[in-house]
Design goal:
heterodimer, A: about 110 residues, mainly beta, 7-stranded mixed β-sheet, 11 strands, about 0% helix, globular, B: about 110 residues, 6-stranded mixed β-sheet, 3-stranded antiparallel β-sheet, about 45% strand
Chain lengths: ~110, ~110
């Protein structure tokens, strides 16, 4: 019972490098999203998707790109990493109906030096 | 503006003491509120949702629309309750607005 799977769990990047955080879910959820978690700020929504081929911006989208080519996968791309993107990233998914539980991945710890 | 406020960054209690984690919200419509818990370096897990009116691990939370609050309570804290607790408000289509979180530390 995999649920929401994120890789990598830990990553160190140099400023200016690009990378992709992977997220996959095996629950056939339509809705997927990415949050970043920073001390004293809780979790903030970066991007979300309501289904394959559909994505939209959340609260803090700058510097990040997403795509949703399949229902299962929702990768998050950092185009040119900056120290301000040092954070813990969580992927989440749920069925589209309101009231359904939102499930989170285990998190990806990213440090940009 | 839609907002969730958790005024305490840290709540430190002794085992067996009552616990109340505060959460206030600002939302123009009918709110849907949740409490999530995050144990050390683990994923967020749903603890409670207000529409279920349930008790999980001894925790309860009541929505008070007059005071716009959704405080989390437990009568007798246990050491295993030590964790980060986030109050969250559902905004629109399955999007969550989180508070800053409160770290609960239960001492023996």
């Amino acid at each position: 019972n995999a649920g929401v799977t994120q890789t990598p769990k830990f990553q160190v990047l140099k400023t200016g490098q690009s990378m992709t955080l992977q997220c996959a879910q095996d629950m056939n959820h339509e809705y997927m999203s990415w949050y970043r978690q920073d001390p004293g700020m809780g979790l903030r929504l970066i991007h979300y998707s309501v289904g394959a081929g559909i994505t939209d911006q959340g609260e803090v989208p700058n510097g990040y790109n997403v795509s949703r080519s399949t229902t299962e996968d929702f990768p998050l791309r950092l185009l040119s990493a900056a120290p301000s993107q040092t954070s813990v990233y969580f992927c989440a998914s749920s069925y589209s109906n309101s009231g359904n539980t939102i499930y989170f991945g285990e998190g990806s710890w990213l440090t940009v030096v | 503006a839609q907002r969730v406020t958790q005024p305490e960054k840290l709540l430190s209690v002794f085992k067996g003491a009552p616990v109340e984690l505060k959460c206030n919200y600002s939302y123009s419509g009918s709110p849907e509120l949740f409490w999530y818990v995050q144990y050390s370096r683990q994923r967020l897990q749903l603890l409670l949702r207000h529409i279920s009116r349930e008790s999980i691990k001894g925790f309860t939370a009541d929505l008070n629309k007059g005071e716009t609050s959704f405080h989390l309570k437990k009568p007798f804290a246990q050491e295993e309750d030590s964790a980060m607790y986030y109050c969250a408000l559902k905004s629109g289509y399955n999007k969550l607005i989180f508070g800053a979180g409160t770290r609960l530390a239960v001492h023996p």
